[in-house]
Amino acid sequence: MVRTYFILGLSGVELKSWEKNLLSHLKPIGVILFSRNFDDSKFWHRWYLKLVESILKEIGSNELILCIDHEGGRVHRFPKLVTHFPPARDYVNYTFEVGKQMGRELRQLGFNLNFAPCVDVLTNLDSIVIGDRAFSSNPDEVIPAATTFLKGLESEGVFGCYKHFPGHGATKLDSHFELPKVNLNFRTLRKIHLKPYYKLPSNLRFIMTAHILYPNLSSEIATMSEFFLKKILREKIGYKGFIVSDDIEMKALESYWIKGEDFIKRLKGSGCDIVLVSNNNWIFRSTFEKIIIDKQINQFVFDAQKLHQFKVSLQKDLDLQVFEDGKRLLEKIKIKSETPAASS
Questions:
Q1: Predicted local distance difference test score (pLDDT) of residue 1
Q2: Beta-sheet strands, E only, within the chain
Q3: In degrees, to the nearest 5, what angle opens at C-alpha 202 toward C-alphas 265 and 158?
Q4: Residue 260 burial by CB count (10 A; 0-12/13-18/19+): exposed, middle or buried?
Q5: What local confidence, expressed as pLDDT, does residue 337 receive?
Q6: 180 CB neighbour count, 10 Å cutoff
Q7: Which of the 8 DSSP states describes residue 177?
Q8: What is the rounded (10 degree) CA torsion for 333, 337, 343, 344?
Q9: Is the pLDDT of residue 341 over 60?
Q10: E strand spans, 109-268
Q11: Any catalytic annotation for residue 140?
Q12: CB-based burial of residue 281 (10 Å sphere; 0-12 exposed, 13-18 middle, 19+ buried)?
């Protein structure tokens, strides 16, 4: 079966006819879910199972990268049952435990990839996009925190993903809404923001790009830059895993949208192995429909052999004890963070 190198978002709790058409003909390697994909009622799990079963039916395989952004804090998509952890900054002393518990809960729901942890080093304290999503403003604190979080997450069979390469922590602007520009030289970038990437754990399989322009280093946005993705990440750092774009519908890439399928091909040429599309914009829907109608699928092929480790397994009945364990861990973190520091 031919599979294409896309991870697609969906519009709601049920597949629309045009989404069924995209899934059945485009056959993306993955699907990403957001809050809009979970029914806000006591029957949410029933609706969720129906949605994922419909996805697998349209694709014709249970080999699927089923993923979500699940960091804690502001980045939480689930109904109440799933533990809502605080942001990374607040569980920095519990990264293994939180990673492991997130993995247990995500595995209960069939997810096999979590777009976390965020390894951005927060040097711009006015950041409106990173802020408390960062473990620290010190790369030497970010590195062990991210490593232990990943170890905990993957101990439960869920892959993690470092983001946002080559670093989003120096920006004030939010790339969801506009293009951030960072005027750093390579020496400073290497010393601070790239440092976590030069200390990658051997088991890391995914890195997500940043839609940021570093004009002193590349004329292209990092997601589109061969300098960053090929020369630095692949050649200098020696990373062998998957490079996945951040959502290409974000406003930071808006100037590229009009290029349609040529833009998506260029992403692959720049060094992205996987292209993430949240699928909110009619421009991308029409682009994918054109790819299907013009029979261009073979220009967007992903090596299906690499999907064998991503099999979705759904549980009809959730183990509620798993989620109760999450609530206890959450209380432990809260109590610890509220304990007054000892006076000297």
A1: 87
A2: 3-9, 28-33, 65-68, 113-114, 162-165, 206-209, 242-244, 275-277, 301-302
A3: 75
A4: middle
A5: 63
A6: 22
A7: T
A8: 70
A9: no
A10: 113-114, 162-165, 206-209, 242-244
A11: no
A12: middle
Residue 94 tokens read as 């519990």
User: What separation in angstroms does the CA of 299 have from each of 36, 254, 261, 295?
Assistant: 31, 23, 10, 9
pLDDT at 40: 87
d(Cα 120, Cα 136) in Å, to the nearest integer? Answer: 8
- What is the residue range of 272's domain? 3-338
Answer yes or no: is pLDDT of 135 > 50: yes
- CA atoms of 158 and 108, how far apart (whole Å): 11
Q: 246, 247, 308, 319: which one is catalytic?
A: 246
Query: Which residues touch 202 (CB under 8 Å, ≥6 apart)?
Result: none
> DSSP 3-state assignment of 252?
helix
Sheet harboring 242-244: ordered strands across? Answer: 162-165, 206-209, 242-244
pTM of the model: 0.95
Closest CA to 151 of 201, 109, 115, 207: 201
∠162-282-78 over CA atoms, to 5°?
A: 45
Phi/psi for 342 (5° steps) reads -65, 140
CATH number, position 49: 3.20.20.300
Do the beta carbons of residue 283 and residue 257 sit within 8 Å?
yes
SS3 118: strand
The verdict on residue 323 lying in a domain is: yes
- Average of pLDDT values for 98-107? 98
Number of domains in the chain: 1
In residues, how long is the chain? 344
Q: Does residue 343 lie in a domain region? A: no
Residue 280's pLDDT is what?
73
Return the bridge partners of 181, or none.
213
Catalytic pick from 39, 132, 176, 325? 176
β-pairing verdict for 65-68 and 28-33: parallel
| Residue 309 contacts residue 66 (beta carbons within 8 Å) | no
Three-class SS of residue 213? strand
Residue 199 domain-assigned? yes
Q: Based on the residue annotation, tell me whether 25 is a catalytic residue of this protein.
A: no
Evaluate whether residue 344 is within a structural domain: no
